[in-house]
Amino acid sequence: MTKSPAQSARPAPLLHDYEVTPGEYLRAELRARGISQADLAVRAGVSTKHLNQVVQDVVPLSPDTALRLERTLGISADLLAQLDASQQAKKGRNKAAAKLSDYRAWFAEFSLPMLIAHHVVTAKASVEHQIEELLAFFGVAEPSGYEKMYAESLQSFRRAQHLNIDAQTTAVWLRLAERRAETLDLAPYVKNDFAALLTELPKLTLEPLAQSFPLLQQRCSAVGVAVVYTPSLTGTRASAAVRWLGPERPVIALTGRGRYEDSVWFSFFHESGHVLYHPKRKSVIEFEGGDDGDGAETLANNFAKKVLLSGRAKELSTLTTAAEVRAFAEDLGIHPGIPGGIRAYEIGNEGFRTFTKLRRKLDDAALT
Q1: What confidence category does residue 2 fall into, taking pLDDT thresholds of 50, 70 and 90?
Q2: Domain with 12 in it: what CATH number?
Q3: How does pLDDT run across 12-48, given as a tens digit for each residue?
Q4: Does 304 fall in a domain?
Q5: Are residues 140 and 200 in the same domain?
Q6: Measuring CA to CA, how many Å separate 97 from each of 78, 80, 103, 209, 349?
């Protein structure tokens, strides 16, 4: 096939191992064709000044100008637009990178060793790069986004400041839980199905948590609830949390701060109560020693006892020996550590001496 004069005059596509700007591409084309910018401006119907600004990469390339250059030079407008988009993104990144230094004070509020230990930031990177990594970890563009996304959580932190809680570390723990939840394959959330499922789950307590947790996670995912286990971080006293990633995407985050499996199970059913009864709260974080200002925690506690004990909480309150509690648990078809732990917390020190022998210790490493 014979090439037309225009095709013969056009140079082969330029291949670079570096990023090419629209202006660089156009300058190469003009040199190869022997066309002046003034002539091209006339052909394209744009001012010489504007064309010069495009060729020198001073101004962005508009879709209209790209189409005019396509007609006059035969260069794909899509190609020019892609080169320009890449150039503008690069300029934006450079501008954003220059602004990262402004966020040093915010970044300094976080424990750097903790961020490194949990692979949030790179150990030997520059501070600016670490700031960018931390923003990406939280999925925000700037610290104000972090404040807004975690505003309700931060309010919880401030209400519990008498507990010496590190707000930033707790936010990192919560975000780690969110990221684990994002990897789960969740069905659409159906409140009634989740409520019905909860009555079937206490029997899972019979097996060690390392064996039963995957099944718990799977069954809850099938009704749209993400359940994740994230070890507690030094500096936060959070034992569990509910976090709504969307109006129909609840996440229950659990830790092993109680050191016994029954504490984890109780936390799960407690947080499930929050999912069912307090769906408008974006975050509910449980702190050891926290308060119950609006009665929501008492409601969630009673819900957990009701489901775990099949509505027989009053009967448990009459039992005084480990043997009685063990028989009670066998009748319910649950591990004796569940009623044993509940009864221990009801009685206090004497209860812990009597019933702790029934509780199964948590193997935290097996869950992580």
Answers
A1: very low
A2: 1.10.260.40
A3: 544 444 578 999 999 999 999 999 999 999 999 999 9
A4: yes
A5: no
A6: 28, 26, 11, 45, 56
Q: What is the pLDDT of residue 16?
A: 45
Choose the final residue of a domain: 63, 79, 100. 100
245: Cα separation from own chain's centroid: 8
The whole-chain average pLDDT of the chain stands at: 88
Residue 135: name the closest of 75, 93, 190 by CA: 93
Cα 20 from Cα 2, distance rounded (Å): 31
Same domain, 232 and 205: yes
Q: Has residue 309 been placed in a domain?
A: yes
CB 132 within 8 A of CB 97: yes
Same domain, 319 and 231: yes
Asked if 82 and 192 sit in the same domain, the reply is: no
What pLDDT is stored for residue 291 in this prediction? 55
Domain containing residue 115: 108-147
H-helix segments, the chain: 5-9, 22-33, 37-44, 48-55, 63-73, 77-99, 104-107, 112-117, 127-138, 143-149, 151-159, 167-182, 191-198, 209-221, 261-277, 296-308, 313-316, 322-332, 337-347, 349-355
Residue recorded with tokens 């069912």: 276
Does residue 154 fall inside a structural domain? Answer: no
pLDDT band at 368 (very low <50, low <70, confident <90, very high): confident
